[in-house]
Prior knowledge:
Oligomer: homodimer
Number of strands of chain A: 15
Number of helices of chain A: 6
CATH topology of chain A: Fumarylacetoacetate hydrolase, domain 2
Largest interface: A-B, 43 and 43 residues
CATH class of chain A: Alpha Beta
Bound molecules: magnesium ion
Distance between the termini of chain A: 46 Å
Amino acid sequence: xxxxxxxxxxxxxxxxxxxxxxxxxxxxxxxxxxxxxxxxxxxxxxxxxxxxxxxxxxxxxxxxxxxxxxxxxxxxxxxxxxxxxxxxxxxxxxxxxxxxxxxxxxxxxxxxxxxxxxxxxxxxxxxxxxxxxxxxxxxxxxxxxxxxxxxxxxxxxxxxxxxxxxxxxxxxxxxxxxxxxxxxxxxxxxxxxxxxxxxxxxxxxxxxxxxxxxxxxxxxxxxxxxxxxx
Amino acid sequence: xxxxxxxxxxxxxxxxxxxxxxxxxxxxxxxxxxxxxxxxxxxxxxxxxxxxxxxxxxxxxxxxxxxxxxxxxxxxxxxxxxxxxxxxxxxxxxxxxxxxxxxxxxxxxxxxxxxxxxxxxxxxxxxxxxxxxxxxxxxxxxxxxxxxxxxxxxxxxxxxxxxxxxxxxxxxxxxxxxxxxxxxxxxxxxxxxxxxxxxxxxxxxxxxxxxxxxxxxxxxxxxxxxxxxx
Lengths: 230, 230
Ligand SMILES: [Mg+2]
Ligand SMILES: [Mg+2]
Ligand SMILES: [Mg+2]
């Protein structure tokens, strides 16, 4: 199992699947995809336990999305979409992740056909738990994800609701771009996403797995950035 | 100056500006942006001299875009948009880059409001020259970029045509996400982009700078990927 320090130093690609839980697609009024689609977050957005608060950029409607993360342990290219063993063998460990999203920035990008990289890529927009040893999750579809805001449960669903399973995800990514040791793949968020504001406290976790705990508060981001639609 | 090996091992983020030359915006019938916008390419897309051909994914309309690349030498956050000295001080060296783009994949993404990461992120979709020592480019706006396909010049423009200059680019990126040592920033492409096919030979360079030479051919990509609109 990689340490947080090793993972932080070596992760070069964070690939995230969009719209991978049916009820989450409905809540955002999105189309259900006929095939998986993916986007990148920059490694500079990672926020590990002890790194400090999530920073809220001015003018941004900031949403949480709790997701199971796969840390890759080997190079993967052209994995078969039904290769369950190949997919699981390629996973080195797990991590719980919150895919923070600047929803109004993303909405403008979607309307104008622009990339999502800014909406998904602000500093601190990828809170992570400690690394979860692979042996702690014998079945990645038997994982109960939960996220609360100020003590109120907002997301709580099992990973068996994924529309595209892990082999299909790693297949579709790896036939486009090589997955490398240390890369992180986020597997999508269940229903219940919503806004958080300065002063809120987010807690997330996986039932029964202490290493998956995330507890992080939200503070205003200083500096010149302000979102304004153009 | 970093070596190719050190850069390849350490680059964690490739940020690219879109629509930064007026005549290139016109040729693709795009809107001129009121502010810069950016997208990520994965480090796994890098293709250095000697690495082999550009691989053409099945069903993809594959376009070249020659661009001046900035390799960052230090951490940058919240740079001022007019801080010419701060911007140039943060550049460690330069590299010539071809931002290969799956145009039909991108067109579908733009129409459907989906991310650009796949269209921009295939393996081999970032041909690079050798590292160009900073001293070889005393003025990054006085650089004549050129690209030819099978011996015919297709792109040939000076970097003084950039709509948003380098300090503004680094300012807008660094107020969203921290730029780190070893990150690469692509500064946009001038007019003349177009398709290349298997068997074509691309040459690109910067007038007067031998380190900037790129010569790479195009071959079919093996494997299961095929682009089909859904
Ligand atoms: Mg997500
Ligand atoms: Mg994108
Ligand atoms: Mg480009």
